[in-house]
User: What shape does this take?
Amino acid sequence: MIYDIKVYPKIGDGQQYVETVTALTAHDAICMVQRRNPDCLVQCERTYNKPCESSAISDAGNALGWIILLGIIFMLWLLIEYWYIAAPIAAFVVIAILLEKFKD
Assistant: This one.
């Protein structure tokens, strides 16, 4: 999980700010920020599972995953539909691999 932890510095030492950390629990996140800022007060403001902003790279990765999945399903359909063509080709490939393996 991702946590936004608000840090309140000592009076007169600076301005309050928010640190974003990744931790298993809110307590772990607060302890992590507290260790980095020992003289400050910290408070958990918000939690979420993923970053708020969406990136085009992750969207492209999801689209590519769907394309690969559909390609695998299509290939499986081709093998089932045209088994009488796929079986001899598969047998030829297996024989070629075995001949190459036991060539010596």
Notes: Residues 2-48 form one domain. The longest helix spans residues 56-81. The longest strand covers residues 41-48. Residues 16 and 94 are 67 Å apart (CA to CA).
